[in-house]
Write a structure and sequence with these properties.
two-stranded antiparallel ribbon; mainly alpha; 2 domains; PX Domain; Substrate Binding Domain Of Dnak, Chain:A, Domain 2; three-stranded antiparallel beta sheet
Length: about 450
């Protein structure tokens, strides 16, 4: 299974360090998104822009995260905090057993610990859970352990990937990418309708001691979900007869869908980049036109013409400052909210794709055992031995083999049905998240309308 842990988005354009922002919000359908900024956003300092857009953001770049920000070291723009906005409040949902209950929705934020570099160079993250009201310190190795635990226990559930561990060349850009990737992973597992109830997830978000000490002092149960989860017959029977064929169609369409999301991410990042560069140019124009800053005074006695020009230039300068603010606000929304939301949906699609691979491997492994053929062969052998008056010891041995294989066959049939039931419910969960794309497009259009209004109000 280790080969299935490979990050499905392991190609990325490097970025420079960006300010850590609170991350995670949920739309009304329960899709996990990353919140770009909050109402009490502090002064963010300077923002850097990458002027090299020729590099393909989806080509391999030493296991960096595909589609992440294009911000890099080039030109520096003075900070303009984005305007405040109200978070979407989740709406009441129809109570279906597999849907996320409103009261269970959680919001996870992941920030670098201020004194995060230890003697051995380890990074610590402050993980905060809104639902639990907790704040704990965790390391990358803790998240990796948790992911492996979930893969062992819930192999037929969607488990999204986490950013790779990089042994050399770790810089601020990689650290920021990894923080965002970990945030998306934690928000997903904290809000998944099944795996969020796992005791280890609860301990991960609430245990104040180090997670390593918790694991050392507690027995961790990671037996496969099928062996511990008793599912009623009516639930297993809820899987449609045509689901297998539907799943084949979905599998065929997954790659184009994922490619589509990757393309959307690239477009949105380039759009944000252009907005930030426009903001920079407007800021420079504002400074150049400002006679207050440049001290452009007239020394000709009785001249009123220069004063009028200065007043107009100062007015234009103020207007351009507003345009700069509008462009910057738009870029923040695009790069830190819409892009992160798209990446959450991308992670969901790729997680489902990898889960289907695990399903196929499991079913193939069971089919390769040829239990039915062994049972038939041993039954024929038993008839022959009995007919020839074979010894009771041999008859008992063959009978025991038949009984063992029949029990194994029953186990495999039950496990196969359970796998299909899990995959069907994960498919329903994935289907429910499709509305997130509409939410994102709506947010994008609202951003454009807001930007146009701000633009027109200051020119």
């Amino acid at each position: 299974m280790n080969n299935l842990l490979a990050n499905p988005w392991d190609s990325e354009t490097p970025i420079e360090e960006q300010p850590s922002l609170p991350s995670s919000s949920l739309n009304e359908r329960g899709m996990i998104f990353s919140q770009s900024y909050s109402d009490d956003l502090p002064n963010l300092g300077s923002i850097t822009l990458n002027t090299d857009l020729a590099q393909d953001p989806w080509k391999s770049n030493e296991n960096l995260v595909a589609g992440d920000e294009i911000f890099s070291n080039s030109v520096t723009l003075p900070p303009f905090p984005p305007s405040k906005h109200e978070d979407n409040v989740p709406q009441t949902q129809k109570e279906i057993s597999y849907q996320i209950e409103l009261k269970k929705l959680d919001q996870i934020t992941v920030e670098l610990e201020e004194k995060h570099v230890s003697l051995f160079g380890h990074l610590n993250y402050i993980v905060k859970s809104k639902f639990h009201g907790s704040s704990v310190s965790r390391r990358y190795s803790d998240v990796l352990w948790l992911q492996n635990h979930l893969l062992k226990k819930y192999p037929f559930r969607i488990i999204t990937s986490i950013p790779p561990k990089k042994a050399v060349g770790v810089d601020a850009a990689f650290i920021e990418q990894r923080r965002k990737g970990l945030s998306r992973f934690m928000n997903f597992i904290a809000n998944h309708p099944v795996i969020s109830k796992d005791p280890q997830i609860h301990a991960f978000f609430t245990c104040e001691a180090t997670f390593q000490s918790y694991r050392n002092s507690n027995v961790v149960e990671n037996e496969e979900e099928f062996n511990v989860n008793q599912v009623q017959e009516d639930e297993l029977a809820s899987v449609p007869e045509l689901f297998e064929s539907q799943l084949l169609d979905l599998k065929t369409s997954l790659k184009p869908q994922i490619d589509y999301i990757f393309e959307l991410i690239g477009i949105m990042e380039r759009y944000a980049h252009r907005s930030m560069e426009s903001a920079l140019d407007y800021r420079k124009l504002a400074v150049l036109l400002s006679t207050t800053k440049n001290g452009n005074n007239c020394f000709v006695a009785g001249c009123t013409y220069c004063g009028n020009i200065n007043e107009q230039c100062d007015a234009y300068s103020d207007g351009l400052e507003g345009v700069c603010n509008a462009h910057t606000d738009q870029a923040y929304t695009m790069s830190m909210q819409i892009v992160e939301d798209l990446k959450s949906y991308r992670d969901l699609l790729t997680g489902f794709q990898i889960m289907l691979t695990r399903r196929e491997m499991a079913i193939t492994a069971m089919a390769s055992q040829n239990i039915a053929r062994r049972i038939t062969g041993n039954k024929n052998r038993l008839v022959e031995v009995t007919a020839k008056g074979g010894g009771q010891k041999e008859i008992d041995r063959i009978t025991n083999l038949i009984n063992q294989d029949e029990r194994e066959q029953e186990y495999q049939v039950a496990r196969t049905r359970f796998i299909e039931w899990c995959v069907y419910n994960e498919y329903r969960f994935l289907h429910d998240q499709k509305s997130s794309l509409v939410t994102l497009l709506t947010l994008f259009l609202e951003t454009q309308i807001k930007f146009s209004s701000q633009y027109l109000s200051v020119i």
